[in-house]
């Protein structure tokens, strides 16, 4: 009888979906000046076993949420993806108002190097040689 009970509880556990919205609020909230301004949208696509999380917060908090080099947001993504994977889903976490390049650089968007009219990149000036 204990085997039947454990099999039933295992089936019940696999059917319980994680509360992705509350988990993201729990992970992102401590980085924010005003956690009540955090907006989270969760879209679960059952047919593709995919979860799309969209997160929005004040621009002043972006540096703290992303962290140096994007480490904080990457850690949050990793935790959320692991939780989704346990439930049998794939997860994509999207931060509103940022590009993927900005997320990798901790919220800072780098401008591309200047180009000359000929299409080549402008190289930095060389130091002058000492005169002898």
Structure in words:
- This protein has 132 residues and is α+β, with helices and mostly antiparallel strands.
- It has a domain at 17-103: K homology (KH) domain (GMP Synthetase, Chain A, domain 3).
- Helix content is 37%, strand content 15%.
- It is built from 5 helices and 3 strands.
- Strands 1-2-3 form a 3-stranded mixed sheet, covered by helices on one side.
- Helix 2 runs antiparallel to helix 4 (71-86).
What features would you highlight for this structure?
15% strand; 3 strands; single chain; alpha+beta; GMP Synthetase, Chain A, domain 3; 37% helix; 132 residues; 5 helices; three-stranded mixed β-sheet
Largest sheet: 3 strands, mixed
Spatial strand arrangement across the major sheet: 1-2-3
Q: What percentage of the residues does DSSP assign to strands (E)?
A: 15-25%
Annotated CATH homologous superfamily of the domain at 17-103: K homology (KH) domain
Going by helix content, strand content and strand pairing, the class is alpha+beta
Cα distance, first to last residue?
Answer: 96 Å
| Number of discrete helical segments | 5
Q: What's the shape? A: elongated
């Amino acid at each position: 009888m204990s085997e039947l009970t454990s099999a039933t509880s295992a089936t019940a556990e696999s059917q319980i979906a994680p509360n992705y919205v509350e988990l993201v609020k729990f992970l992102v909230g401590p980085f924010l000046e005003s956690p009540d301004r955090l907006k989270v949208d969760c879209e679960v696509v059952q047919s593709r076993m995919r979860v799309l999380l969209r997160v929005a917060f004040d621009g002043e908090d972006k540096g703290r949420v992303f962290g140096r080099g994007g480490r904080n947001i990457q850690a949050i993504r990793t935790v959320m993806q692991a939780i989704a994977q346990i439930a049998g889903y794939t997860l994509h976490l999207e931060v509103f108002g940022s590009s993927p390049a900005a997320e990798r650089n901790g919220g800072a968007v780098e401008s591309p190097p200047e180009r000359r009219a000929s299409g080549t990149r402008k190289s930095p000036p060389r130091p002058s040689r000492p005169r002898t």
